[in-house]
Amino acid sequence: MSRSSIHLVRHGEVFNPDKVLYGRLPEFHLSDLGRRMADRVAGHFDERRNDGANLVYLVASPLTRAQETAAPIAAALKLDIATDERILEAENRFEGMSNIQSRLRNPRYWPLLRNPMRPSWGEPYAKQVARVMAAVDDARMRAVELGGDNAEAVLVSHQLPIWVTRLAAEGKKLWHDPRQRECTLTSVTTLDFDGAELVGVRYAEPSADLLPGAANVPGA
């Protein structure tokens, strides 16, 4: 059976001076720093390719920030960008709001917080895992079709879907403290496969030195 690796990349910093929880809203573009991050992660994959990595397939969420992060990766690897809605940001009832912490003190929103383990304010974690893993499986098979053994694919997505997919891959509970997510801007969470069997999870931060001071309001 063919071995393969799927790299789940979080997008770069978004220009969001009002600190809106942007979720699936359109036209939230990368900031200047976010573009530097996108270039950095593109360089990361270019170096991997130069070292022999068999990078053959690139996919991105349809949201602007993901497409803009994928663009320099596509240029570096000379790949087209396939778009897959299954790796979209999570649905969230607070989408479009700013100053979320202050809003949570308003009794009007308390019903949305009744079950944080699901979570009750948005798309269930299990549903996110199911759709992302379906996209991962299709990308894995397409990569092997294009590149054979040790083929690799890059999927540019969003923090929460990537994080809960990693938790599921590691056999952990999906409920978590959002402050504890290990999924920084333009980080790379890698799922390694032997055939259809998931055999390992890896994590890297190509933009680690660019993170201090970066705005990090999650989409969900």
TrEMBL record:
**Could you tell me which SMART domains the record lists for this protein?**
PGAM
Transmembrane feature ranges? none
Pfam families associated with the record: His_Phos_1
An example of a GO molecular function for this protein is: phosphatase activity
* Family annotation (InterPro entries): His_Pase_superF_clade-1 (IPR013078), His_PPase_superfam (IPR029033), PGM_Phosphatase (IPR050275)
The record's CDD domains line, in alphabetical order, gives:
HP_PGM_like
Cellular component GO terms, alphabetically? cytoplasm
PANTHER family per the UniProt record, alphabetical: BROAD-SPECIFICITY PHOSPHATASE YOR283W-RELATED (PTHR48100), PHOSPHOGLYCERATE MUTASE (PTHR48100:SF51)
Protein name (Swiss-Prot/TrEMBL): Histidine phosphatase family protein
